Amino acid sequence: MTLDERALRASWADALPEPFWLQQPGRPAAHPALDGDTRADLVVVGGGFTGLWTALMAKERDPRRDVLLIDAGRIAGAATGRNGGFCSASLTHGESNGRERWPDEYEQLHRMGLENLDEIAATVQRYGIDCGFERTGELAVATRPHELAEYDSSADDFLDAAALRAEVDSPTYLGGSWDRSGTAMIDPARLAWGLAAAAESAGVRIVEHTPVDRLRRGRGSVDVVTASGTITAQRVALATNAFTPLLAGLRFHTVPVWDYVLMTEPLSAEQLDAIGWSNRQGISDSGNQFHYYRLTEDNQILWGGYDAIYHFGRRIKPAYEHRDETYQALATNFFTTFPQLEGLRFSHRWGGVIDTCTRFCAFFGTSHRGRVAYATGYTGLGVGASRFGANVMLDLLAGTPTERTRLEMVRRRPLPFPPEPFAWIGITITTWALKRADRTGRRNLWLRVLDRLGLGFDS
Ligand SMILES: Cc1cc2nc3c(=O)[nH]c(=O)nc-3n(C[C@H](O)[C@H](O)[C@H](O)COP(=O)(O)OP(=O)(O)OC[C@H]3O[C@@H](n4cnc5c(N)ncnc54)[C@H](O)[C@@H]3O)c2cc1C
After folding, report:
1. Residue 107 reports pLDDT greater than 50
2. Which residue's CA is minimally distant from atom 15 of ligand 1?
3. Residues with CB under 6 A from ligand 1
4. pTM more than 0.90
5. Distance of CA 455 to CAs 100, 377, 407, 426, Å?
């Protein structure tokens, strides 16, 4: 690595502190806020992927249903407009997490995940959503010898260092695998805006800039209470992700964790040539602190991940959207991975919040005698799984068992996190131990105990 600290800092310091995806032309104008009391058959709270899929599919299932979608801020303004755009078939945050937790149902979950991704592709086509959907798959790469040991070198999808570097040329690559069909690359904001437009054309009403304060039991209904009016709803779907849950019983089931991203300027033809990458896969490395990276349609590199930051007290504040220390680490690791790109600069930097739960994939449930359903806890892999979560909520609200609602994965909830200060202490110790395990290749006693309890994260 030839770049010094100052040159590394200069590579990102002038980057626009905004999510690249949300800065693109074509962002729809904001819908008006709620103005007075109203009624709806279904109120969807949250205008990210989970809420948008719920609203659209509610109309597809029953066009006569009156659906209102409400968001505290803007459509796709939170994680949905800030993510890496890896649209994965996995519903379980990867195979090993899924197999370990639901060994008997994993094959079914795998099949349902692939079907879900196929249906996302079909929806994009059906509504003509221009979101750069490319089913290029995902490369998982080992950059440390102990990580290589996790790969099965006899598997069909295994690539040794030479084969991997023929795909994408980084001197750090030791080997890896290429899942060719389980992940698509998408432009998340344009997918969300397209889903919102499709929902609206099906008759969904959308209001923005209207935080829901609470839910109140009504007579044969649920009141969705906001400062600017109350919506009397027959059914409510909660799609509020990492934000403070509207159901008190969920307060301890997720913690908000911050994840950060740098986006490069577009690569020139020579720069692209220097690294290859003509098959345009998404890439993730194999550490506990892992990076995810991909090309945009105009050959910028989105480079995210590594740090996962939790703030005491489950706080979510705009001030946390940027973290210089993390940007510096991301830039350092970027130029270590691609030294050929020395001199390239980053055009955008941003952060976003993910809804981490103790089983690392979404969980579901109902309250208010089945009138309210929720889906949350995607733990940073919700771009594709949010559509599955939306379908689960609609199934639960309909009250008729389906293949989805019969799954143990859907019926069971994860263990909650402890209250503060124990949550902060536990997360801090775990983060330290995971970093150490990346260096040493060994999980210490703390991580082994968490593994034993089913609480250990292994990317
Ligand atoms: C930096 C980053 C990178 C990521 N990369 C990937 C990736 O590459 N692949 C992947 O699969 N996943 C990724 N994720 C995770 C993915 O973005 C999320 O899992 C997914 O977008 C979740 O969608 P959602 O609709 O559940 O939540 P969100 O997009 O967070 O939407 C929730 C919405 O609810 C609204 N809301 C909350 N409370 C209220 C209230 N009381 N009243 C009204 N509205 C409310 C919020 O304003 C928000 O708009 C990433 C996340 C981040 C932050």
Report:
1. yes
2. 380
3. 45-51, 70-73, 77-80, 82-86, 88, 211-212, 239-243, 246, 259, 261, 292, 304, 352-354, 378, 380-384, 386
4. yes
5. 11, 14, 20, 11
